[in-house]
Amino acid sequence: MDDTGSDAPAAGRDELVAALLAAAGSGDAAANDRLFALLYDELRQCAHRQLRSLSSRTLSTTALVHETYLKLISARTLDVQDRRHFMALAARAMRQVLVDNARRAGAGKRGGDALLVTLDERVPDAVNEALEVLALDRALSTLEAVDPRAARVVQLHFFGGLAFPAIAELEGLNERTIKRDWQAAKMLLAAEMGAGG
């Protein structure tokens, strides 16, 4: 249901997305292109949130969306059930793009692996931004080993920009459980990144 109170266009759009996902899953490159065009604004919003939350100066929203799309279609076929699942994959791909970009930005920089930063620091310097993304990626990898569901919640919410109700629907859980996972994940990530209590 959208804010206009009319969910008919959204339902039709979801049906079109489902059809395009099925075609893309069968290897139809034109369906990939149409799917990207249809979800472009949603992907841009997701990318914009990511770059804003990271105070990014190294990638533009458009560049992040396009690199994400290239990463998604490089798999040749998309095995995706619905729009939310696609956006979850896009969130993972955005994380990979940001991490790859951060590694390039931080390559050869003095003290690259030694510095840990918190999620709350917002340093506009490209090297410190790269360190922040890499520290978050390492912390998320650790979280994935300890609590895979909580790590998915972080990825969907932080990288994918999905709201808790959408994540709950995607995970087949209630929203309260997702919020508990988010709170637990934030504490674990803060501890892992050296922010502590």
Give a topology summary.
Layout: H1 8-25, H2 29-53, H3 61-73, H4 83-106, H5 126-146, H6 148-159, H7 164-171, H8 175-192
Helix pairs in contact: 1-2, 2-3, 3-4, 4-5, 4-6, 5-6, 5-8, 6-8, 7-8
Rg of Cα set: 17 Å
Count all strands and give the number.
0
**Topology order in helix (H) and strand (E) letters:** HHHHHHHH
Task: Give the DSSP E fraction (strand runs of 2 or more residues).
Answer: under 5%
Tally of individual domains: 1
Count of discrete alpha- or pi-helical segments spanning 4 or more residues: 8
The biggest beta sheet, please?
none
Helix-strand category: mainly alpha
Q: From the structure provided, what is the oligomeric state, counting identical versus distinct chains? A: single chain
What is the global morphology?
Answer: globular
The first-to-last residue Cα distance is 39 Å
Average of the residue pLDDT scores: 76
User: Which regions are unreliable across 5 or more consecutive residues at pLDDT < 50?
Assistant: 1-8, 110-124
Task: Name the helicity range.
Answer: over 70%
